[in-house]
Design goal:
This protein has one domain. 26% of the residues lie in helices and 45% in strands. It contains five helices and seven strands, in the order αβααβααβββββ. It has helices at residues 3-18, 48-53, 56-62, 78-82, 85-93, and strands at residues 32-44, 68-76, 96-104, 108-117, 120-132, 135-143, 147-159. A seven-stranded antiparallel sheet has the order 2-1-7-6-5-4-3. A hairpin with a 3-residue loop joins strand 3 and strand 4. Helix 1 packs antiparallel against helix 5. Residues 3-8 and 14-23 have low confidence and may be disordered.
Length: 168
């Protein structure tokens, strides 16, 4: 997997996981404005010398060496809570992936996935837990021969109105 592919995968995954909606069965969460804090750790399986040659800003943006933390506000609609949004968004951003539902309830969604990309296969696990209708936690782990990625999201409901959303 080339660095651009990894960055693209990380960005798509971050976008998908940052939305506390990702369910086949409707999640027991409120609609409206949510504040999502995503922490991403990315490890590239390449020699230290090559890693050091990447610009510092690129390493920071990718979460290499130190976790990248991003907080944004998103609008959660009824459609988001009812649709199989995670899998659909991942299928749009990644070419060849297979998903397996492990758990599918209103308070917990869990998948494993395997994606084929240039240079290898990535495998992973995604879990979404509804702590309450006002708080959702999610995690995603991805492993490939070229990289590892761990993402954690803590999402909290802010308001019924979506005014102030900074992301979809």
């Amino acid at each position: 997997m080339k660095t651009r592919t990894i960055i693209g995968f990380a960005a798509a995954t971050g976008l998908a996981i940052a939305l506390p909606l990702l369910a086949a069965e409707r999640l027991a969460a409120r609609t409206g404005l949510w504040e999502n804090t995503m922490t991403m750790n990315l490890g590239l399986n390449m020699p230290k010398e090559q890693l050091e040659q990447l610009p510092a800003e690129m390493r920071r943006q990718m979460g290499i060496g130190a976790p990248r933390v991003v907080t944004e506000r998103s609008c959660m609609t009824e459609k988001d809570l009812e649709a199989d949004t995670f899998r659909d968004s991942m299928q749009d951003s990644l070419q060849d992936c297979d998903y397996k539902h492990i758990t599918d309830t209103a308070t917990r969604q869990e998948w494993t996935f395997q994606c084929k990309a240039q240079g290898g296969t990535a495998t992973g696990r995604m879990v979404i837990d509804v702590v309450s209708e006002q708080q959702v936690r999610a995690s995603m782990e991805m492993r490939s021969p070229e990289a590892t990625m761990d993402v954690k999201v803590d999402a909290r409901w802010v308001a019924a109105s979506c005014e102030g959303a900074t992301a979809k």
